[in-house]
Amino acid sequence: MKNAIISILAVILGLLIIAFPVLGVVTASAIIGLSILLLGVYLMIAGISELDYSPTRSILNITIGVIMLILSIGIIFNPSLFAFLAAITLYLAGIFLMVAGLVTLIGNRENKYGFWMGIVGIALGILYIILGTYIRDPLILGSLIGIWLMIAGVLRLADR
User: How many CA atoms lie within 13 A of 5 on its CB side?
Assistant: First the structure.
């Protein structure tokens, strides 16, 4: 039951991230900050829910989630921090996506689709960095995180 709730939460957060940039109301810093924030929240919730199954993976997910949460709040509410991090913000989000994929890859070996969740996270993180380097469109970049959350949620549901 707990996995189903986490899976549905991932799909909902993924849809929110994909839909949010379409609104086009907020700045690039808020879009990237919100994407990182939602990914951080998901990792913290997933880490807490996995504490019984894999303490190491759980601690890694919670730690990465807390770091992402703090960073995203700074990016959203402190424009000078965003200006300072503007050059590396795109890379940070891609790196966080790759790290989340790597943690999923390492920690979900016993799950049927865990390997693929990790591979997709790593691949989308690399794609995020490449697109961030050349395109710098927050609509596309925010959507990549949303796509990973949706895929991870669907694969978790299929793995039940």
Answer: 7
pLDDT on residue 80: 66
Angstrom distance (rounded) from CA 134 to CA 100: 23
Q: Of 58, 159, 52, 51, which Cα lies nearest the Cα of 113?
A: 159
Three-state SS string across 105-156, please?
HHHCCCCCCHHHHHHHHHHHHHHHHHHHHHCCCHHHHHHHHHHHHHHHHHHH
What stretches in the chain show pLDDT beneath 50?
A: 22-26
| pLDDT (tens digit per residue) in 26-45 | 456 677 788 888 889 988 99
